[in-house]
């Protein structure tokens, strides 16, 4: 494992929001097996601690979110700790109770794009660069690109991005629905925190249930899903009456 005084993933907690930062800026936060192991450890802890952390931010140190899978690690013969370590980590992001926000600047290529797509929400800098380079390197996506990208932007745009390997900037990412919003890079960090705080101010019980229902209902037909939501939900949050009595403070 990585030395404890030089972690590959940093964690900071504030007001119910936990920020995970990919921390290999000298390598544009390339996704090595060791980085994935550290990321998975943090995510496991957060998923088990949804009473203390209501929202998670995933971002990158330095000038990029991540340049993608660490090709040099592949050349060196580094292997994941399990056969599907990376894909299972992305699945965990989708399944964990808390909403996860990807905050993207600079490069977000291939494996990093797959990582960002596993997050519930995405905010990016205008000069962010999204790209799928599987075709360039003769690789085949196995972390979820062929499912999550069409779900996010629609099949026509997904085919364009995957088949051509062209770069999509932050402006276009927001236009096509890859990102929720795009803004000048110097505003990204502050805007991400403000967005996370806005979400975390709501009932975490509701947030967890909304995320769970959307994931569950995606597996049902529409009528079956509507029936499930009204009959199988957990009911309101314990503090619902207190929230109503306190009114909305926006």
Tally of separate domains: 2
CATH architecture term of the largest domain: Alpha-Beta Complex
Structural classification: alpha/beta
CATH topology term of the largest domain: 2-enoyl-CoA Hydratase, Chain A, domain 1
SS field, number of helical segments? 12
Strand content: 15-25%
Helical content (DSSP H or I, runs of 4+): 40-55%
Sheet having the most strands: 6 strands, mixed
Give the rounded overall mean pLDDT: 91
Radius of gyration: 18 Å
What overall form do the CA principal axes indicate? globular
Alpha-carbon distance between the two ends: 45 Å
CATH superfamily of the largest domain: 2-enoyl-CoA Hydratase, Chain A, domain 1
State the main characteristics:
250 residues, alpha/beta, 2-enoyl-CoA Hydratase, Chain A, domain 1, six-stranded mixed sheet, three-stranded mixed sheet, 46% helix
Structure overview:
The protein has 250 residues and is α/β, with parallel strands linked by helices. It has 2 domains: 9-200, 2-enoyl-CoA Hydratase, Chain A, domain 1 (Alpha-Beta Complex); 204-246. Helix content is 46%, strand content 16%. It has helices spanning 33-47, 71-76, 85-95, 111-117, 134-137, 145-153, 155-164, 170-176, 188-200, 204-217, 222-232, 240-246, and strands at residues 9-14, 17-22, 55-60, 100-104, 107-109, 121-125, 129-131, 168-169, 181-183. The strands form 2 sheets. The chain has a 6-stranded mixed β-sheet with strand order 1-2-3-4-6-9, sandwiched between helices. Strands 5-7-8 form a 3-stranded mixed β-sheet. The longest helix has 15 residues, at 33-47. The radius of gyration is 18 Å and the shape is globular.
């Amino acid at each position: 494992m990585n030395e404890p005084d030089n972690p590959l993933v940093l964690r900071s907690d504030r007001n119910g929001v936990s920020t995970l930062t990919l921390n290999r800026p000298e390598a544009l936060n390339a996704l090595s097996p060791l980085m994935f192991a550290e990321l998975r450890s943090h995510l496991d802890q957060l998923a088990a601690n949804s009473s203390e952390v209501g929202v998670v931010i995933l971002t990158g140190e330095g000038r990029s979110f991540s340049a993608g899978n660490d090709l040099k690690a592949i050349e060196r013969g580094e292997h994941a700790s399990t056969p599907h370590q990376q894909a299972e980590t992305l699945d965990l992001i989708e399944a964990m109770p808390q909403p996860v926000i990807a905050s993207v600047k600079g490069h977000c290529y291939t494996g990093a794009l797959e990582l960002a797509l596993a997050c519930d929400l995405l905010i990016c800098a205008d000069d962010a660069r999204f790209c799928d380079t599987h075709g360039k390197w003769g690789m085949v996506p196995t972390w979820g690109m062929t499912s999550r990208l069409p779900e996010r932007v629609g099949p026509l745009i997904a085919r364009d991005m995957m088949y051509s390997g062209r770069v999509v900037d932050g402006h276009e990412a927001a236009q096509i629905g890859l990102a929720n919003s795009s803004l000048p890079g110097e505003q990204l960090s502050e805007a991400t925190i403000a967005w996370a705080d806005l979400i975390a101010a709501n009932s975490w019980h509701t947030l967890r249930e909304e995320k769970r229902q959307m994931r569950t209902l995606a597996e049902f037909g529409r009528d079956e899903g509507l029936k499930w939501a009204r009959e199988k939900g957990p009911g309101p949050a314990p503090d619902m009456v207190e929230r109503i009595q306190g009114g909305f403070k926006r």
